[in-house]
Amino acid sequence: MPDDRGDAKVLPLWEHVIELANLLRTWVYTFILASMAFMVIPADLSFLKDPLAFYNPLVSVILLTLKNRLLPSNVQLIAGSFTAPIELYVIASVVLGFAVSLPLLAFKVYRFVDPALKPSERQSVYPFTAAFSLLFVAGVLFGFLILLPFIVIGTLIFLPVVGAAPFVNIEDFYTLVFFTLLTTGFAFTLPVFVVLLVKFQIIGTSGITKRRVWVWVGTYILTAVITPDGGPIADVALFIPIIILLEGSLLVARRYEKRHPLPEKKREHEALKCRFCNGVIDPEGVFCGLCGKSRL
User: Fold this and answer.
1) From CA 190, how far away is CA 193, in angstroms rounded?
2) Backbone angles phi, psi at 237, to 5 degrees
3) 3-state SS string for 158-185
4) With 80 as the cut, is the pLDDT of residue 169 above it?
5) HSE of 37, CA atoms in CB hemisphere, 13 A
6) Closest to 97 measured CA to CA, from 27, 47, 162
7) At what angle do helices 148-156 and 231-259 cross, to 10 degrees?
8) Residue 73 has what pLDDT?
9) Are the C-beta atoms of 133 and 40 separated by less than 8 Å?
10) According to the per-residue pLDDT averaged within each range, which of 19-23, 116-120, 168-172 is highest?
């Protein structure tokens, strides 16, 4: 894909697919090597005294750290099936390998789309990537340090109520942990997309503030989906920081609106007719409510 847009050549779709596959090849190799490293690299060097003896790989230390941090000492993990420990060993290594290789994947995707970006859009890539990465890490830490303890405690307190013994299926526990950490991390990145959409003049902040109640309701539903086993306390614990981040993103987005106001804003407020079906359009909306086509 050439960089000179004046002489840009339109490539067939299949050639774009081949180009993307070539760029992702390095990431695939890195992802595989990182996953294997978590499987085989020992957690300490004590195995050098007896190389033939069994040693704990790096993934084992990470899993045991999650268990010791989140589960009370009286709760025991049990294998639901004979192969459950092996499956968890492989899946956890793959998830950790993907997490480690994620920055390289983002860089390769950026290399693929970079020739098609305008100079103003290219300038937004690095702040967007930095903000996305920092908020994702903050979301994962929040999920591990605050949200997961709420979920685990909120679930375990019902064991004596129903007369159940404190035994937890190992697959259920780690699936809950990985699912919560990933979804919380991505939920924290929502403000980045809000700022980006406002900066590129796709949406306006006034449209969000007018519908603030519905935005808050939708955010709470999102937190309830992310924390299915944590009860209302965990939902509120995640809802509050996301709302704070969202309101903060609106403040940042308004600065872009003042710096780059919407073109022909006055004309848009005067002419509110869809050019396709002549239907009435909300001044802050992008799509016609009648035919669904964009008015831009």
Assistant:
1) 6
2) -60, -30
3) CCCCCCCCCEEEHHHHHHHHHHHHHHHH
4) yes
5) 12
6) 27
7) 160
8) 82
9) no
10) 168-172
